[in-house]
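User: Sequence recovery, please. Input:
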């Protein structure tokens, strides 16, 4: 049972590893979970399952136990080399047996070993009960799985495979001293391995800094007040299974410092012209981080809550670590620059009969040209 649990954990970790920017066996690098090939990094929630019709197997001398396995977990903030995932395994459809996780949770480490390939390790305990013949607790210490991303895996969303890993008995009478675990898992949505980009010192400028070899803002041209709005005729969209909400969006904020890595902006969103709906910010403000990746290009992250009230929808959603791509006027299709968020998930935090998730699509542009400098 424990072995199955550990196996599932290791498999999940490996699968996650596929989506992480990572570490080689010689030198660990920062890792991040990504929802698209070399994009959409910053995913923190993990949901993995065994393949349809292919159960996890714990092989013992007294009998074989086969179960469907589900893993739900979250990355540990601040970890990256390796990336640590904490969560729980659930076992079902185990025939005449029952299998349960022991100890309240598991911890998985993900280490990238090459292109779309990762090593995943973890350990944990499981209890396996099969009638009167088997009541044993097994511990899988440092199970090792191989993860592959969608570009290399035979599974559409990627996969983690653990084959013939050994779990040892730690409790139970008349239990085999060891058992063998075989399992393959896949995430519910695609998870890729991408190269994490090194962030640069970031500043906003009202004059093109490109003439400066280091792209530093010209003296006296730092921007500290941010005023951005959705494009004319292109509202921000919150898409749910019940109703789609479209609003004009205004953001007003100020940088916490004039230069940062990342640059932090604190401010507020205002929503208007939402048709028959009303949308308002919850919590008194938001914090946004802007990190320069290269010439006129940034990664923009942030989170916050909004309350949406429409006919048939009265819900509060939280967008955790939303990830957007920012471009200055020299690269953007918008005259003053732009920040775009596409297909990012917001999760329900309160409200009856509300869809559990919604999708956010939005592009904003500053009222005056804002360049990316250092």
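Assistant: Recovered sequence (374 residues):
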């Amino acid at each position: 049972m424990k072995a199955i649990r550990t196996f599932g954990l290791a498999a999940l970790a490996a699968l996650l590893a596929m989506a992480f920017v990572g570490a080689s066996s010689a030198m660990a690098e920062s890792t991040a979970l990504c929802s698209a090939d070399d994009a959409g990094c910053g995913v923190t929630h993990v949901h993995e399952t065994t393949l349809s019709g292919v159960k996890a197997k714990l092989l013992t001398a007294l009998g074989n136990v086969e179960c469907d396995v589900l893993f739900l977990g979250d990355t540990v903030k601040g970890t990256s080399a390796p990336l640590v995932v904490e969560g729980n395994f659930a076992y079902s459809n185990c025939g005449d047996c029952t299998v349960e996780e022991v100890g309240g949770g598991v911890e998985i480490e993900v280490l990238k070993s090459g292109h779309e390939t990762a090593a995943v390790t973890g350990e944990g305990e499981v209890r396996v009960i099969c009638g009167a013949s088997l009541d044993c607790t097994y511990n899988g210490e440092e199970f090792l799985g191989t993860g592959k991303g969608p570009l290399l895996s035979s599974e559409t969303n990627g996969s983690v495979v653990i084959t013939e890993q050994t779990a040892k008995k730690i409790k139970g009478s008349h239990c085999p001293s060891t058992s063998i675990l075989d399992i393959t898992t896949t995430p519910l949505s695609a998870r890729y391995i991408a190269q994490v980009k090194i962030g640069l010192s970031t500043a906003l400028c009202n004059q093109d800094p490109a003439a400066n070899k280091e792209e530093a803002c010209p003296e006296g041209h730092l921007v500290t007040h941010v005023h951005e709005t959705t494009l004319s005729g292109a509202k921000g969209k919150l898409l749910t299974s019940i109703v789609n909400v479209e609003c004009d969006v205004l953001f007003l904020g100020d940088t916490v410092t004039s230069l940062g890595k990342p640059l932090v902006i604190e401010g507020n969103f205002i929503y208007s012209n939402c048709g028959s709906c009303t949308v308002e910010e919850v919590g008194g403000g938001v914090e946004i981080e802007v990190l320069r990746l290269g010439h006129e290009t940034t990664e923009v992250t942030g989170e916050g809550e909004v309350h949406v009230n429409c006919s048939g929808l009265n819900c509060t959603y939280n967008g955790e670590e939303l990830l957007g791509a920012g471009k200055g006027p020299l690269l953007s299709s918008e005259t003053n620059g732009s920040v775009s968020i596409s297909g990012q998930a917001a999760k329900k935090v309160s409200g009856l009969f509300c869809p559990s998730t919604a999708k956010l699509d939005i592009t904003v542009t500053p009222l005056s040209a804002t360049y990316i400098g250092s």
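The helical segments are 2-18.
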